[in-house]
Amino acid sequence: MIEHDETERPVKCTGCGITLQTMHKDQPGYLPEVSFERDPIICQRCFRIKNYNEASSVSVNQDEFLRLLSGVGEKNALVIHIVDIFDFEGSLISGLQRFVGNNPVILAVNKTDLLPKVTNWNKLRNWFQQRCKEQGLRTAEIVLCSAKRNQGFDHLLEAVTELRGQRDVYVVGATNVGKSTLINRLISDYSDLEQELTTSRYPGTTLDTVRIPLDDGHYIIDTPGIVYPWRYSELVERQDLDAVMPSNPLKPAVYQLNEGQTLFFGGLGRFDFVQGVHQSFTCFISGTLKIHRTKLERADELYQNHRGVMLSPPGSEQLDKLPTWQRHEFRIAKNSQTDLFMSGLGWIKVNGSEGAVVAVHVPRGVKVLTRPSLI
């Protein structure tokens, strides 16, 4: 990060108050070196809001985000928590309720376009409501939406209109969940930013939240995206991100497996059917990530001989940058309708009614858990 002499030029963004820096585009306070010639001097995120009515994404770690969020419960606020339907447990903000207090929360479940068209949406909404209840999060409304397809946003705007009243709107979420797209839609519907921001400096806060003025004197508060280290999207290199995060509707891959068979998901993960009767497993994984089947007894040898080549991504040059794999074993009860969830990689639905013992191998630190089946 370049240090700036305060006697020569400002070191704070006049829009949001963040310390300016020129080294890291994806972090708060970034602006190109040449932009110090602007008047007023504002960071790139504030510049895009002011000139293009668009918010861009920046990120902070969990501790920093929770510090920024610590005072929301004492304010009159509406909180929109946006999560990724493909990585729900990985993108849900744990403990959010204790920070928002009695303020209403809208849960915006994004990327619904990834699910099969035959999905029962009412059942899905109830599923999310139950998961939030288990996490202690009270939701005033759950909205299923797709930023990519511009679906469900009318419902979201209706919920915001109904619940906002005289409140500011805080938008919170992890990285790569579509938060900026949602904020941009709110901007276009609720704020005449072009007029407001070209006639006066818009009020800012300290650090890296941005207060976007609304027509009624209240604000949309754009918070940075949280970096959760247990998600694949934070582990893989950018060139591998497209293979991990699906951009097209998921095509469930059904495998009829015998006890003692293994599935590899590229070189990023592995599923072992350790014990049980012949049964089917449905993989909800990005279609660009190839699945390889082998015998469990040959799985270790196959991985050692073919990782980074046949079993890729990651490529061989990226392997050493990932943590070593960790094995997680689960006993699936009979008639349980269970998913094996791997944060950011997808999930495996256990279809058999007789139960099973299974294991998942993923890089150490990746969140893995069982849950009631989403679909």
From TrEMBL:
CDD domains: YqeH. GO terms for molecular function: GTP binding. Gene3D superfamilies: P-loop containing nucleotide triphosphate hydrolases. Residues 66-229 form the CP-type G domain. InterPro entries: G_CP_dom (IPR030378), GTP-bd (IPR006073), GTP-bd_ribosome_bgen_YqeH (IPR019988), Mito_lipid_metab_GTPase (IPR050896), NOA1/YqeH-like_C (IPR048422), P-loop_NTPase (IPR027417). It comes from the Bacteria. This is Ribosome biogenesis GTPase YqeH.
